[in-house]
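Worked Example 4.2. Consider the chain below.
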Amino acid sequence: MMTPHLSGLTSIKSMSEGSSYPTGAQYRETLQHPNACFKDPILAGGKMKTDHFGLPKPISGNYASVFTVEGVDGKTWAVKCFTRYAANQQMRYQYISETLSKLYQPWLVPFDYVPEGILCLGVWYPVLRMEWVEATGLINFIEAHLSEPKVLSDLASKFLQMNHDMASAGIAHGDLQHGNLLVTSAGELKLIDYDGMYVPGLVNLGASEIGHANYQSPIRSMKHWGSYLDRFSAWIIYGSLIALAVDPSLWTRFHHDGVEALILGKGDYLAPEGSLALAALAQNSDSRLWTLSQIWTQSLASNLDAIPILDSTVLPKRNVGRQFAVTTQSTTLSEDGDKDLSVLIDDWLKSIESAAPGTLDTAIDPTWILANLPPVPRVAFKPQCGGPRLMYASGLILIIVLIVLVDLSAIRVADAGIGGVALIIVVLGLSQWWYNRLDVVRKKRQCLHHLNQQAGLVKRSEYLAATVEKERQLVDVRERRAVAGFEKRVKETRDSESKLLQEAEARSAREIAKVEAKLNSLMVTESLDISSRLQILQNSYIADQLRASTIQSTTIQGIGDSLKMELVRCGIRTAADFTGIFRGSNSQVYIIMRNGAHIHPKGIGETKARSLENWRQATEKYFRQRQPMSLPTAELQMVQAKYLHQRQSLNSQESALRSLIVAQRQQFHDQSALRIKSLNGELADLRKRCSAERIDFDIRAKAIRREVSAAVWSQAKAELDYRRFREVTFMRYLVCAFRG
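Applying the procedure from the previous section yields the following structure tokens:
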């Protein structure tokens, strides 16, 4: 997968160790002509990616500059040009390549180490060539997916797997940080920049760097070297991804634009007791965030090799028993203090996916109580019915009398019917009156009244519980809206900072472009001045040498002493006295004098004239090869001094403009940070108020639950008591009275 080029080690080493490496600017100038500085035909025939000035665009780091080349093979290549010599660099890459080639993991990026990679300043220097990865940096990816906890938790799992792969192979990257972690559009994690990687074959070479300070333990130094190098930074990155999946607002509160860190940085490691981020996590009642704060704090207090490997078997426990874990969305019982990391991570991912506002159980069904209470004895209903029986007998006699009177035609059938109905109504009414006077009936009515009272209390308690829950949910809604508002204001503040900075940088860039144009023009003018002076010097040298080359002291083919005397008589004594020959219209050959006159010396034909001209040209060519190629030091210094003041003035202007950009960037950042700090304070106050309100609602809810339970219990008992009188009915009373 990765096959480094390993030729030319001795030659490159001798050149590299003996001199410092080129700067990024020198590489940039050289790369304007890739066909002249690359041996690799794919790169030599390629096209450089340029900036708005048309110059090769670098991605600069502490020890190298990376340039992008569109190769002739249709692929885009990243070419890493080193700006600092590193001892045993080629050996390191050889062992790294051999080790990584055995892993075949998706997070690896293939590379070629090319010893004679780029010709710069007349010397071949090594480069690292790798295929360009189209991906997003870790910070930009997090900001784009803050509202998608599943995406962040998936990335955390891939990061966990990558660390497992490296730990299993006994290797360490050495500089795990956001700048070396990329995420492709397909969600694949990529690890780049293997300069400081530890592999078993390099155990005796020692470290070449100590990594990014915002991701490394404060105790790390060049003495630390081994497979344990990534443990601290791995916990920092993995824990940050998990924490942001649980509570995305941590990003707004503790990540600052322009700062190369996630939610923790060097300042938090040097003074953990004063770290706002660690304090916020440690004081958070959500045990997931508390756990992360403990892992980070313990890592700061440990030797590098004592920090546990990033995996799912180590976790500090929160020995406080069962507790309420209050989040912005719900109040739930937590027993996470008794679980290890493997269980917790599963719980976290599930809670991230299914988190929803809690509800109070207000629909309590009392039937389960009734089903589990012991049966109660029924009330026996055997009433005394002497009065009703006498009344029924009297009524029966009256009905018989009415029938007889109807038969005797003493009264009409209709009148008899009306009298009978009235008699029945009177009998039933009197029966009901006697029934209601019974003690057992009065007790049944009292039980029913008590049952209705308890049912009313249950409904009232359930209504209060529903009201409290609704009010509590309104607190959550209000908090979410407020948090969204704060996040919007933070975004507006940062957008404003970015806009102001872009405008200021655009103005400064225009001014810098003008200054650079003047500098370029000045360089051209100085170069032309030097070239002009050198041309005059060279012409003077040639003229002097031609004047010193006399015809009398030179052997010229075909021209003897007599012809030389004739040439001298005509004024041609040296090579400087004529410039060439000319054939006239009469086929006569003329010699062109220095003053432009044409002469025809006696005895000089075309052949001898050409010999004379060849002698002059050979003489001039001889001295052209020996003419001075540069101005004398004194004259060159005089010319440079002539332009030095203008150059210094323009360089000072450019430096001032660049310093102004830095100052404006810091000013805008400070103003934005002050505003965001104020917003974070307001947000923290709001969260405290909402948390206090939720706690109050929880207390009220518990009290209401007790009221509901008590009311349901009383209702169940009242209903059970009422059921004892199920045989006490008016119909049974009537039946009992008729039966006698």
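The longest helix spans residues 439-548. Residues 406 and 413 are 6 Å apart (CA to CA). Compare this with Example 4.1 before moving on.
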